[in-house]
Protein backbone atom coordinates (compact mmCIF):
# COMPACT_ATOMS: atom_id res chain seq x y z
CA UNK A 1 0.00 0.00 0.00
CA UNK A 2 1.13 3.54 -0.83
CA UNK A 3 1.42 5.38 2.50
CA UNK A 4 1.56 9.18 2.48
CA UNK A 5 2.67 11.07 5.59
CA UNK A 6 2.36 14.85 5.51
CA UNK A 7 4.14 17.14 7.97
CA UNK A 8 2.27 20.42 8.10
CA UNK A 9 0.97 23.26 10.24
CA UNK A 10 -2.41 22.78 8.55
CA UNK A 11 -3.39 19.08 8.79
CA UNK A 12 -7.00 20.05 7.95
CA UNK A 13 -5.85 20.59 4.35
CA UNK A 14 -5.57 16.78 3.90
CA UNK A 15 -6.87 14.72 2.25
CA UNK A 16 -8.84 17.76 1.05
CA UNK A 17 -9.68 17.34 -2.64
CA UNK A 18 -8.04 13.90 -2.58
CA UNK A 19 -10.87 12.69 -0.34
CA UNK A 20 -13.23 12.91 -3.33
CA UNK A 21 -13.69 11.16 -6.66
CA UNK A 22 -11.01 8.74 -7.92
CA UNK A 23 -8.45 9.35 -5.14
CA UNK A 24 -11.16 9.47 -2.45
CA UNK A 25 -12.67 6.13 -3.54
CA UNK A 26 -9.18 4.61 -3.53
CA UNK A 27 -8.54 6.02 -0.04
CA UNK A 28 -11.80 4.47 1.20
CA UNK A 29 -10.84 1.16 -0.44
CA UNK A 30 -7.48 1.17 1.37
CA UNK A 31 -5.35 1.44 -1.78
CA UNK A 32 -3.44 4.28 -0.20
CA UNK A 33 -3.34 6.05 3.16
CA UNK A 34 -3.00 9.70 4.13
CA UNK A 35 -1.55 10.46 7.57
CA UNK A 36 -0.93 14.00 8.82
CA UNK A 37 1.53 15.11 11.47
CA UNK A 38 1.18 18.52 13.13
CA UNK A 39 4.63 20.14 13.09
CA UNK A 40 3.61 22.41 15.97
CA UNK A 41 3.51 19.42 18.33
CA UNK A 42 7.30 19.65 18.19
CA UNK A 43 7.33 23.44 18.59
CA UNK A 44 9.29 25.12 21.37
CA UNK A 45 8.13 26.88 24.51
CA UNK A 46 4.73 27.99 25.64
CA UNK A 47 3.83 29.19 22.16
CA UNK A 48 5.13 26.05 20.47
CA UNK A 49 7.28 28.15 18.13
CA UNK A 50 8.33 26.48 14.88
CA UNK A 51 10.07 29.45 13.23
CA UNK A 52 12.49 32.26 13.95
CA UNK A 53 14.02 35.29 12.24
CA UNK A 54 16.49 34.67 9.41
CA UNK A 55 20.18 34.64 10.28
CA UNK A 56 21.74 37.61 8.50
CA UNK A 57 18.48 39.55 8.60
CA UNK A 58 15.82 40.11 5.99
CA UNK A 59 12.07 39.70 5.76
CA UNK A 60 9.90 36.81 6.91
CA UNK A 61 10.51 33.86 9.17
CA UNK A 62 12.47 30.63 8.73
CA UNK A 63 11.34 27.24 10.03
CA UNK A 64 13.74 25.85 12.61
CA UNK A 65 15.92 22.83 11.81
CA UNK A 66 15.60 21.33 15.31
CA UNK A 67 11.80 21.50 15.28
CA UNK A 68 11.48 20.07 11.76
CA UNK A 69 13.98 17.29 12.49
CA UNK A 70 12.04 16.29 15.61
CA UNK A 71 8.81 16.20 13.60
CA UNK A 72 10.45 14.16 10.82
CA UNK A 73 12.08 11.69 13.22
CA UNK A 74 8.78 11.13 15.02
CA UNK A 75 6.91 10.60 11.74
CA UNK A 76 9.43 8.39 9.94
CA UNK A 77 12.19 6.43 11.69
CA UNK A 78 15.59 6.21 9.98
CA UNK A 79 14.74 2.78 8.48
CA UNK A 80 11.49 4.01 6.88
CA UNK A 81 12.03 3.18 3.18
CA UNK A 82 9.87 6.03 1.87
CA UNK A 83 11.50 8.95 0.06
CA UNK A 84 11.44 12.11 2.19
CA UNK A 85 10.45 15.18 0.23
CA UNK A 86 10.36 18.85 1.02
CA UNK A 87 8.26 21.13 -1.15
CA UNK A 88 10.34 24.01 -2.51
CA UNK A 89 10.24 26.32 -5.55
CA UNK A 90 13.97 25.71 -6.03
CA UNK A 91 13.60 21.92 -5.98
CA UNK A 92 13.88 19.50 -8.87
CA UNK A 93 10.90 19.88 -11.22
CA UNK A 94 8.19 17.27 -10.64
CA UNK A 95 7.39 15.15 -13.72
CA UNK A 96 5.09 12.34 -14.82
CA UNK A 97 8.08 9.98 -14.84
CA UNK A 98 8.79 10.83 -11.22
CA UNK A 99 5.12 10.27 -10.34
CA UNK A 100 5.28 6.82 -11.93
CA UNK A 101 8.39 5.88 -9.97
CA UNK A 102 7.00 7.05 -6.62
CA UNK A 103 3.56 5.48 -7.26
CA UNK A 104 5.27 2.09 -7.60
CA UNK A 105 7.04 2.53 -4.24
CA UNK A 106 6.05 2.36 -0.56
CA UNK A 107 4.73 5.96 -0.42
CA UNK A 108 6.11 9.37 0.51
CA UNK A 109 6.94 11.44 3.56
CA UNK A 110 6.35 15.07 2.59
CA UNK A 111 7.38 18.12 4.58
CA UNK A 112 5.14 21.08 3.74
CA UNK A 113 6.81 24.32 4.82
CA UNK A 114 5.27 27.76 5.29
CA UNK A 115 6.85 31.23 5.72
CA UNK A 116 10.02 32.25 3.87
CA UNK A 117 11.50 28.78 3.97
CA UNK A 118 13.37 26.32 6.16
CA UNK A 119 16.79 26.21 7.77
CA UNK A 120 19.12 24.67 5.18
CA UNK A 121 20.69 22.33 7.73
CA UNK A 122 17.60 20.14 8.11
CA UNK A 123 17.53 19.54 4.34
CA UNK A 124 21.12 18.30 4.47
CA UNK A 125 20.89 16.58 7.85
CA UNK A 126 17.83 14.52 6.98
CA UNK A 127 18.60 13.98 3.29
CA UNK A 128 15.42 15.67 2.10
CA UNK A 129 14.66 15.74 -1.63
CA UNK A 130 13.60 19.24 -2.66
CA UNK A 131 10.76 19.10 -5.18
CA UNK A 132 9.08 21.93 -7.09
CA UNK A 133 5.77 21.70 -8.93
CA UNK A 134 6.53 24.64 -11.23
CA UNK A 135 8.08 28.04 -11.69
CA UNK A 136 5.80 30.12 -9.50
CA UNK A 137 5.55 30.73 -5.76
CA UNK A 138 2.78 29.28 -3.59
CA UNK A 139 1.99 30.37 -0.03
CA UNK A 140 2.84 26.96 1.42
CA UNK A 141 3.93 23.43 0.60
CA UNK A 142 0.51 21.84 1.20
CA UNK A 143 -1.03 22.56 -2.19
CA UNK A 144 2.18 21.38 -3.88
CA UNK A 145 2.03 18.14 -1.86
CA UNK A 146 -1.61 17.65 -2.94
CA UNK A 147 -0.54 17.99 -6.57
CA UNK A 148 2.22 15.40 -6.15
CA UNK A 149 -0.05 12.96 -4.31
CA UNK A 150 -2.81 13.37 -6.90
CA UNK A 151 -0.41 12.52 -9.72
CA UNK A 152 0.96 9.49 -7.82
CA UNK A 153 -2.28 8.09 -6.42
CA UNK A 154 -4.06 7.82 -9.77
CA UNK A 155 -1.18 5.61 -10.97
CA UNK A 156 -1.42 3.12 -8.08
CA UNK A 157 -2.57 -0.23 -9.48
CA UNK A 158 -6.34 -0.61 -9.07
CA UNK A 159 -7.07 3.09 -8.64
CA UNK A 160 -8.00 3.81 -12.24
CA UNK A 161 -10.69 1.60 -13.71
CA UNK A 162 -8.93 0.84 -16.93
CA UNK A 163 -5.17 0.30 -16.91
CA UNK A 164 -4.93 1.69 -20.45
CA UNK A 165 -6.41 5.00 -19.44
CA UNK A 166 -3.00 5.83 -17.99
CA UNK A 167 -0.95 5.06 -21.04
CA UNK A 168 -2.22 7.20 -23.92
CA UNK A 169 -2.29 10.36 -21.83
CA UNK A 170 -0.26 13.49 -22.15
CA UNK A 171 3.44 12.95 -21.24
CA UNK A 172 3.23 9.14 -20.97
CA UNK A 173 4.20 8.78 -24.62
CA UNK A 174 6.36 11.90 -24.56
CA UNK A 175 3.58 13.65 -26.50
CA UNK A 176 0.63 15.82 -25.53
CA UNK A 177 -2.76 14.21 -26.00
CA UNK A 178 -4.70 14.30 -29.28
CA UNK A 179 -8.09 16.12 -29.38
CA UNK A 180 -11.10 14.23 -27.98
CA UNK A 181 -14.74 14.34 -29.11
CA UNK A 182 -18.03 12.82 -28.03
CA UNK A 183 -21.71 13.16 -28.89
CA UNK A 184 -23.47 15.08 -30.35
CA UNK A 185 -22.10 14.56 -33.84
CA UNK A 186 -22.66 18.22 -34.60
CA UNK A 187 -22.56 21.06 -32.05
CA UNK A 188 -22.98 24.75 -32.93
CA UNK A 189 -22.10 23.93 -36.50
CA UNK A 190 -18.89 22.10 -35.52
CA UNK A 191 -18.53 18.50 -36.56
CA UNK A 192 -16.39 15.60 -35.36
CA UNK A 193 -13.43 14.82 -37.70
CA UNK A 194 -14.62 12.24 -40.28
CA UNK A 195 -11.77 9.83 -39.52
CA UNK A 196 -13.02 9.28 -35.96
CA UNK A 197 -16.42 8.20 -37.30
CA UNK A 198 -14.95 5.88 -39.97
CA UNK A 199 -14.63 2.78 -37.78
CA UNK A 200 -11.18 2.18 -39.31
CA UNK A 201 -9.06 1.63 -36.20
CA UNK A 202 -5.67 1.78 -37.93
CA UNK A 203 -6.64 5.05 -39.60
CA UNK A 204 -7.91 6.46 -36.30
CA UNK A 205 -4.71 5.50 -34.50
CA UNK A 206 -2.65 7.18 -37.24
CA UNK A 207 -4.79 10.35 -37.07
CA UNK A 208 -4.41 10.55 -33.30
CA UNK A 209 -0.66 10.06 -33.51
CA UNK A 210 -0.36 12.82 -36.13
CA UNK A 211 -2.52 15.19 -34.08
CA UNK A 212 -0.52 14.48 -30.92
CA UNK A 213 2.73 15.19 -32.75
CA UNK A 214 1.41 18.40 -34.33
CA UNK A 215 0.05 19.73 -31.01
CA UNK A 216 3.29 18.87 -29.20
CA UNK A 217 5.39 20.54 -31.92
CA UNK A 218 3.26 23.67 -31.73
CA UNK A 219 2.77 23.99 -27.96
CA UNK A 220 5.70 22.20 -26.32
CA UNK A 221 8.57 21.68 -28.76
CA UNK A 222 10.82 21.14 -25.71
CA UNK A 223 9.14 17.74 -25.16
CA UNK A 224 10.32 16.51 -28.58
CA UNK A 225 14.01 17.15 -27.88
N1 LIG B 1 11.07 32.30 -0.05
C1 LIG B 1 10.86 31.14 -0.84
C2 LIG B 1 9.37 30.90 -1.14
C3 LIG B 1 8.55 30.54 0.06
S1 LIG B 1 6.92 30.08 -0.36
C4 LIG B 1 11.63 31.27 -2.16
O1 LIG B 1 11.83 32.37 -2.61
O2 LIG B 1 11.98 30.25 -2.73
C5 LIG B 1 6.48 29.10 1.03
C6 LIG B 1 6.53 27.60 0.82
O3 LIG B 1 5.61 27.25 -0.21
C7 LIG B 1 7.86 27.06 0.36
O4 LIG B 1 8.72 26.83 1.45
C8 LIG B 1 7.43 25.76 -0.31
O5 LIG B 1 7.26 24.73 0.63
C9 LIG B 1 6.08 26.09 -0.88
N2 LIG B 1 6.14 26.37 -2.32
C10 LIG B 1 6.01 27.57 -2.92
N3 LIG B 1 6.10 27.47 -4.26
C11 LIG B 1 6.31 26.17 -4.53
C12 LIG B 1 6.51 25.45 -5.75
N4 LIG B 1 6.51 26.03 -6.94
N5 LIG B 1 6.70 24.11 -5.66
C13 LIG B 1 6.73 23.49 -4.45
N6 LIG B 1 6.54 24.13 -3.28
C14 LIG B 1 6.34 25.46 -3.30
Q: How would you characterize this protein structure?
A:
The chain is α/β, with parallel strands linked by helices and 225 residues long. Helices cover 31% and strands 19% of the residues. It is built from seven helices and ten strands. The protein has a five-stranded parallel sheet with strand order 2-1-6-5-8, with helices on both faces. Strands 3-4-7 form a three-stranded mixed sheet. Strands 9-10 form a two-stranded antiparallel ribbon. Helix 1 (21-28) links the parallel strand 1 (2-8) and strand 2 (32-38). Helix 3 (96-103) crosses helix 5. The chain is elongated and about 70 Å long. Bound molecules: S-adenosyl-L-homocysteine. S-adenosyl-L-homocysteine binds at residues 87-90, 113-114, 116-117, 132-134, 136-138, 140-141, 144.
Figure out the total of helices. Answer: 7
Q: How would a textbook summarize the main sheet? A: 5 strands, parallel
Roughly what fraction of the amino acids lie in strands? 15-25%
Shape: elongated
- Evaluate the radius of gyration: 22 Å
Give start-end ranges of low-pLDDT stretches: none
Q: Give a list of the ligands.
A: S-adenosyl-L-homocysteine
Q: Give me the strand/helix succession.
A: EHEEEHEHEEHEHEEHH
Number of E strands: 10
The SS-based structural class is: alpha/beta
Helix content: 25-40%
Amino-to-carboxy terminus distance: 36 Å
Major sheet: order of its strands?
2-1-6-5-8
Question: For the residues shown, what is the average pLDDT?
Answer: 96
